[in-house]
Amino acid sequence: MQVEPEDRLSSDDRSQSLPWLPIAAGILIVILAIAWFFTPDEKQEPESAAETLQAATVKATRVQRPSAPDIPQAKATAPAQTATEELPVAAPPPPPLSLDESDPVVREVGAASLDNTVFTQALLQEDLLERSAALFEAAGNGAVLRKVFPIPQPEGKFQATRVDGQLLTDPQSYRRYDPYAAAIASLDTAALAAAFHRFRPLLEEAYANLGFRAEDMDNALIAALDQVLAAPVLEKPAELVADVNTYTYRDQSLEDLTPLAKQLLRMGPRNQALIQEQAKSLRAALLQE
User: Fold this and answer.
1) Residue 160, strand partner residues
2) How many domains is the chain partitioned into structurally?
3) What number of other Cβ atoms are within 10 A of residue 66's Cβ?
């Protein structure tokens, strides 16, 4: 497990900084709900979605990844009317929402689910849908973006402990992520799917602005959820190896996992189960299964 700077063996208070969200898993809420991962970074200001995507080496020439199914378009429903009912004079529809003007609306939708959670701060950023589109693409490739949304740092430090001669993650380290997993588990995945359809055209536009085909945006989201679901569930704690200032997994098959999968393992089996269950539920809601 190539750990992040917060998990170094030696600590230096001068290098501590806020963590940053990379994530897998619609609209901003969908990604916040499924793929929050936490990594300290030296920069205190998030970069733009395009700069972040570029910094993470997720280019328009993406890595080869398994195909993901299309998300069906939402089914339109019309209110029932009796034969004798007079139709009201329809008011002119409001102008369509533009990508440049979408942040306040996304914040309003997101606040209903994320207020008073560890994710509230992320809604204060700008270019929310652009950042979300960048997260879809990166998480769909198993990558972890580090400079998208600032959130409160997990309390405490990563700790390892020796059990029967093996170096293992101290369970106290898993508990640092309990508030994040709890917030994710509390979200209504049916509402998240509905929010995705509400903002789908703008997300497709934002995704195209990053150099990808607009029609592939939904596939990237499903691929991100599939990456979350593909993370292995460990039957017992994995043994670690202490390097100079980081930890790695002794099992090379675990060390070779994607950054996203290894981040899930770092959160502990209980939190991983909560997040994967939500990913499964959201995937089903989006695909109307």
Assistant:
1) 169
2) 1
3) 9
